[in-house]
Automatic annotation (TrEMBL):
Keyword Oxidoreductase: yes
Keyword Oxidoreductase carried by entry: yes
Designated name of the protein: Glutamate dehydrogenase
InterPro entries: Aminoacid_DH-like_N_sf (IPR046346), Glu/Leu/Phe/Val/Trp_DH (IPR006095), Glu/Leu/Phe/Val/Trp_DH_C (IPR006096), Glu/Leu/Phe/Val/Trp_DH_dimer (IPR006097), Glu/Leu/Phe/Val_DH_AS (IPR033524), Glu_DH (IPR014362), GluDhGdhB (IPR054867), NAD(P)-bd_dom_sf (IPR036291)
Length: 426
């Protein structure tokens, strides 16, 4: 995922947990769900805080703070990423774990939500130091994770390399190889083909379905994508193959724009070589902020959170917003876009391909049987269309609900039903 600093805004600060709780209340207003269950879902089941010491290459010992928030497990083991970033906080992990609960429920995957990370800038560490950090983190979390308990995955600042180290450290501690303890691993050690591309593919699939819902011809659709990393690049290239006209993309340093359309296969993504998107000389350049305000049919914020805010939502000229990143639209930005009649299709549906293929990977690990990339992509398309149909039905059934509220209605109904069936331990 391409990362950059969020834009400055005068909008009141709201944590990810605050936003998640507000969205939960809005969904609960539409359906008959036990108020006690709603209150339970406003709080994580547990938050684990650990110290992660490593010996730096200069011989000094440094101790980093690590977190693992486990939100809800009524439908199955906790599931969610591990991020290495200086901005990691307990509140952020709680909010993101809540979103993971809804995302898994929207996709009807038998997992609950989890999220964790370490307060660190991985650019400040050598490869060997990152490996040491990852292995020690696995040791510190060993008693609260496992393939039937809590299954981490890659996130901001981590990838398949870290997941392989994490899995190996956990397996060494347990005395047997347990590939199902994490997802997002390299295929050679139990990872799934198509996992890295999955969030971008799901964003493209949902864009295709949304355009069909609004009777728009995808071959006559213009698309701008902020963030040409693992999510944005894969979304752009799949949309291009569908016939859409991707006219603008960006990375951390800025973007490129060509109203005649970009050759998305020729543009080098941020993941492939940082800085090459904004350095592409074949097109006009623009800033990340300007990209969000282009006059296009669809804009996909696929980089970081909090980029569509009260400060710029009135300037968005796209007809449809598809959230490729996690939490790219603030509460007040969402309200403005809704008031203006611009549909915002939420992240918990649009980028849910990542957790869906993670589920496929977990199944492959449990059954010790690998799937081909063709099978993975076919299954992903089927699951995304099924989830889209569930959200569309909720959108049409509940008068006045936004697409975000419709997705939460689907998720909350399923999580609420699981809590009702299981009851409350006395």
């Amino acid at each position: 995922m391409t990362t950059t600093a969020p834009p400055e805004t005068d909008e009141p600060f709201e944590t990810a947990a605050d936003t998640a709780r507000r969205q939960l209340d809005r969904a609960a207003a539409y359906i008959d769900v036990d108020p006690g269950t709603v209150e339970r879902l406003k709080h994580p089941k547990s938050v684990h805080r650990v110290s992660v010491p490593i010996e730096r290459e200069n011989g000094e010992t440094e101790v980093y703070r690590g977190y693992r928030a486990q939100h809800d497990s009524a439908r199955g083991p906790f599931k969610g990423g591990l991020r290495y970033h200086p901005g990691v906080t307990a509140e952020e992990c709680i909010g993101l774990s809540m979103w993971m609960t809804w995302k898994c429920a929207v996709m009807n995957i038998p997992f609950g939500g989890g999220k964790g990370g370490i307060v660190v800038d991985p650019k400040d560490l050598s490869e060997s130091e990152i490996e040491q950090l990852t292995r020690r983190f696995a040791e510190e979390l060993r008693n609260v994770i496992g393939p039937m308990r809590d299954i981490p995955a890659p996130d901001m600042g981590t990838g398949s390399r870290e997941m392989a180290w994490f899995m190996d450290a956990y397996s060494m501690q347990e005395g047997e190889t347990i590939p199902g303890v994490v997802t997002g691993k390299p295929p050679v050690v139990g990872g799934s083909y198509g996992r890295e591309e999955a969030p971008g593919r799901s964003a493209a699939i949902i864009t295709r379905e949304v355009l069909g819902y609004y009777d728009r011809d995808i071959t006559e659709t213009t698309v701008a994508i902020q963030g040409f990393g693992s999510v944005g690049a894969n979304a752009a290239r799949l949309l291009d193959s569908y016939g859409a006209n991707v006219v603008a993309v960006s990375d951390v340093d800025g973007g490129i724009y060509d109203p005649a359309g970009l050759d998305t296969e020729a543009v080098i993504s941020h993941e492939e070589q940082p800085g090459m998107v904004s350095g592409d000389a074949a097109s006009d350049t623009l800033s990340n902020a300007e990209l969000l305000e282009l006059d296009v049919d669809v804009v996909i914020p696929a980089a970081i959170g909090n980029v569509l805010t009260a400060d710029n939502a009135d300037d968005v000229r796209a007809d449809i917003v598809i959230e490729g990143a996690n939490g790219p639209t603030t509460t007040h930005g969402d309200e403005i876009l809704n008031r203006r009649g611009i549909p915002v299709v939420p992240d918990i549906l649009a980028n849910a391909g990542g957790v869906t293929v993670s589920y496929f990977e977990w199944l492959q690990d449990i059954n010790r049987r690998a799937w081909s990339i063709e099978v993975v992509n076919e299954e992903l398309d089927d699951e995304m269309v099924s989830a889209w149909n569930d959200v569309r039905e909720a959108f049409e059934t509940h008068d006045g609900a936004t697409w975000r509220e419709a997705a939460y209605i689907v998720g909350l109904r399923r999580v609420g039903a699981a809590h009702s069936a299981r009851g409350l331990w006395p």
